[in-house]
Each structure stands twice: as C-alpha cells, then as structure tokens.
Amino acid sequence: MPPYLKIYDGTTDPEDHIIHYVATVKGNDLSKEEVPSVLLKKFGETLTGGALTWYSQLPTRSIATFEEMADKFITAYVGAKKAEARVKDIFAIRQMHGERIRDFLARFNRVIMSLPNVTEGMAVAAFQNGLNRNGSRATRKLLSRLMKYPPTTWEEIHNAYCAKVRADEDDINSPTQRLMSLQIEAKKDHRNEGQRDQLGPRSG
What is the pTM of this model? Predict the structure, then answer.
C-alpha cells in the first residue's frame, strides 16, 4: 500500500478510517473489478496495535466481502468514535464574553453530567482550557491561580475558586459553590455512606 495511507490503532473514528482507506485504494491504477478484492485483502495492512490484534483474531474465511469487513470493523470500534467525540465535546465548551464563572460552570457541568465516562483529569483540563483569557477580573484571577498551581482534581479547582474568585462573584451559598461541591462529593458519597449510616442521633 502507498506510504501516505493512514494507519489505524483503535483510538479514533473507525468510519473516518474506512472512508480514507477506500478513497486511497480507488485512487490507485486498478480496474473496477479489482477494487473489491484489493479492499478486502489489503485492509489488515492499515491496522496496528489493538486493531491489528482484532483483525488477526477473525476466523479464517469468515468474511467474504469488504462491506462485511467494514461493518464488523465499525461495530468493533464504535466505542473509540464515542470517546473521540467526548473529548471534542468537552473541549469545545468555552466561557463567553461577559459570562460569569458560575454560569460557565453550570453549562460545563450539564455537558459533563451527560457524558459520565469523562475522566476527572480530562474534565479539569477542559474546564481550565475553556476559561476566557480575556474575561472578567474574576476569571483572570482564577486563571492566574490555576496556571500557578495546575489542578488535577475538581477539589483543587474548587479551592482555587474559593481563594481567588468567590468574594468577587458570589456569596458563600452561591450556586457555583454548590455545583463545585457536587462534582467533588459525587465521587465520595459511595465511600461515606456506610460511615454516615453508623452515626447515631445526637444526644439532647
């Protein structure tokens, strides 16, 4: 196969790989009759890593046409397509001009809640990336803090918000604080439920 053919490792959109592969093969000097056979026989040469392992484990002669191969391939790697879309979705969230941090966080939180498999580290990076560099004084103060002390957890973002921004934007019972707390507490609840159940009522 030509050297400019993309190699697929199982981490990106499988449909994009199929489209690129078919276009590349058809761009060679092949007759119309030769194309289907070449598509099927050469497909394995475009795979590496886990995708190549998947291909090598297909039963011998179990696939008769490239259309069948493409269907099985896309079905096998649909999760990779979703994961790629997930990253694009959260990194596309941007704080708008004039939007308060608490309002931006509310929007960001809605997307995160709809994509439960996003890792905390990915969400933290996306939130920091989405803050408006030319935003309000409060936003710039938060950005400055996050750049000085790069966060790895939502708790660290919450601490930075409390230290630099909350007095400018909100009072202590603000929706922002509650949203931040929800992000932190959600992952802790299952560990604390047993402990809370053991606590008896206070003596009067």
Answer: 0.47
